[in-house]
Each structure stands twice: as C-alpha cells, then as structure tokens.
Design goal:
Blueprint lengths: L3 E4 L5 H11 L7 H9 L9 E6 L2 E10 L14 E9 L8 H15 L4 E4 L11 E2 L4 H9 L3 E4 L2 E6 L7 H12 L2 E5 L5 H11 L2 H15 L8 E6 L9 E8 L2 E7 L8 H15 L4 E7 L1 H8 L4 E12 L2
Parallel strand pairs: 4-5
Antiparallel strand pairs: 1-2, 2-3, 3-4, 5-14, 6-14, 7-14, 8-13, 8-14, 9-10, 10-11, 11-12
Helix pairs in contact: 5-8, 6-7
Length: 321
C-alpha cells in the first residue's frame, strides 16, 4: 500500500502524539500542549499540518505555521515567511525518501500561499523549541542540510537552581545607586498598564508584546499575578516621571523575557530586574528557573545568577520561492 500524505484530522492526533514522543523524546508533548501551541493558534491551518500514513500506521508528521489570520509584525515583516515547528518520521520509514516527499508536498502548499522562506523552528506564537537540538538530533540537522536549509544561528536554553538563591550585597548596592539616580525597580501595579504597554510597543519585539498582553488579560481573570512582572520606572520628577524603561517577567518556572530601553542600558538595570525577579520566584516556592531561548551575550548575564547552558539549538532557514 502506498503511503498517503494528507492534512491532519482529529482522528490522527493520538497517533501523532505517540510518534512525536517516541522520535523526539526530549521535546515530548501532551494533547493539552499540542492543542494550546498548534490547534488553538489563531493562525492554525490544518492544510499545513501534514501526516503520512501507511494503512493504519502513522509513518510521519510535519507541523507548519504562517501568518494566516493574525499578522506577526517584525517577526514576519513582508508576510512571506513560514515555519516548521516540529516533524518526525517513524524509524521504519527513514532513509526511504518519505521525509523529502512530505517536505516537498508542504512547500508546494506554502508556495501557493505566497511564502518565500521557511524557518526551523522559530514561529514565535507557538514554537516548542528554538530549533534543532545539535547534540540530541544530529541526523535531523543533516537531513535539513540536504534539503537546502542553512543554519543561521545557535541559541541556547539555560537552567538555574533557586532553592538557595539570595540577592547579593553587590546587587543591593546597584539598586541603591539606581534609586539615587531616579530609577526604581518594583513589581507591576495595574496603574502601570498604559505606560507599560507604551514601553513594550516602542521598544520590544512584537511577540513579546503579544505575550505581555496575554498575561495582563490573565491578570484580569485572576490567573496571573502583578508580582510576576517587575518594572524599572523613572521616578525622578521632571525627567520622565512614571516612564517605564525596563521589565522582567516569569510564568511559573519560565523566566523572561526581559529588556531595557537602549537609552538606559549599561546602568545595571537589567541585573537588578533579573535578581529581584528570581528572588520573587524563589519566594513563591519555585526551586528552578529556566530560559528556553537566549543568545550568548545575554547568557553571560544569566550565568552570574547561576544559570548554566542546558541545550544548544540550530535555527535553520531555506528559500522556497
């Protein structure tokens, strides 16, 4: 029987999850996670989530996304990008051309939609990991290279223990200097909503704005707390009083994102934001913190607070025009 390649259906999902978790063990998913990240994404298109079947056997899958309904701002400035966020082939069918056939079928669909470049796997609204784990999945990197993908950069994830975390005297001194210069680091309050959104929209990537909007909506429903966001605020009369100039947040053990406006960088604001946020995480009983996606520059700051590299990823790109 010839292997069929079709858009995913509801009846495929259990088989997809079982295959996914077998071939991508470090990035295993549950039905809840698959629904949250993929099926309930505003841009979900079942026609770009393909499955391969050999009779009743799930032979492979590939999950793709593009800005179908909701524009992605600076993440997709020309509207011609698409992403593959996950894929997997049953071991029995590897080396037989099935993955190439699935990718070819997918790219035909995406080209017909006007897409010109494809990325692995940085679809901001619903990525699982930033790219391909270079240590755990080298065959996947090799396959993608043969398919014309080129590596663009290598982000990393980091983890830190929090059980014994303490704010150092050095950080307290930095914070006091900021206070003396008119800058205060404190927990978010609801009166900060408008200046906080103004800061985000003027200074941060579009996806960070989207995440903060979602968290602040959850705050109105009581499922996100104000002290899960820390702000750096200009507190000096006559010098932008009340202006938000930096922020940091966490969701359970997930730390970040955090950022400071260009004008105020190099003053230790990010260090204080990071330290006070980790302190709050520990006070809430969290024993660990993790950053899923960062770069080597930011990693130097994180390392000062006990973060260590956990995984390294290859972000890859291909022109499909």
């Amino acid at each position: 029987m010839e292997i069929s390649i079709t858009p995913v259906s509801y009846f495929d999902l259990d088989s997809v999850i079982k295959l996914w978790n077998r071939v991508n063990p470090l990035d295993a998913v549950t039905a809840d996670l698959l629904e949250t990240r993929v099926l309930l994404d505003e841009n979900f298109d079942e026609n770009t989530f393909l499955v391969a079947r050999d009779g009743n056997r799930m032979a492979g899958f590939v999950v793709s996304a593009y800005a179908r309904r909701v524009p992605l701002g600076d993440h997709d400035p020309k509207g011609d990008r698409c992403w593959i966020t996950a894929f997997g082939i049953d071991e029995v069918y590897r080396g037989k051309g099935l993955a190439t056939r699935m990718f070819s079928t997918l790219f035909d669909k995406l080209r017909a939609l006007g897409k010109k470049e494809c990325f692995i796997a940085t679809y901001a609204p619903g990525y699982f990991v930033p790219g391909i784990d270079v240590k755990e999945y080298p065959p996947a990197i090799s396959f993608l290279g043969k398919e014309g993908f080129e590596e663009t950069y290598r982000p990393l994830s980091m983890d830190a223990p929090l059980a014994l975390f303490k704010v150092t005297r050095e950080l307290e001194v930095k914070e006091q200097r900021l206070i003396e210069s008119g800058i205060k680091v404190r927990a978010y309050s609801r009166q900060d909503l408008l200046p906080f959104m103004k800061f985000l929209e003027a200074n941060m990537p579009a996806d960070w704005v989207r995440v903060s909007r979602a968290n602040l909506r959850d705050l109105t429903r009581g499922i996100f707390k104000p002290d899960q966001i820390f702000l750096a605020v200009c507190d000096k009369p006559g010098a932008g009083e009340g202006e938000v100039i930096g922020y940091c947040q966490f969701e359970e053990a997930h730390f970040g994102p955090f950022g400071v406006t260009d004008k105020y960088q190099g003053k230790g604001i990010g260090t204080v934001l990071l330290g006070r946020t980790l302190e709050r995480m520990r006070s809430k009983g969290l024993h660990n913190a993790y950053v899923l996606w960062t770069d080597d520059t930011a990693a130097k700051v994180y390392s000062k607070f006990g973060f260590k590299e956990t995984r390294r990823f290859a972000v890859m790109r291909k022109s499909i025009a």
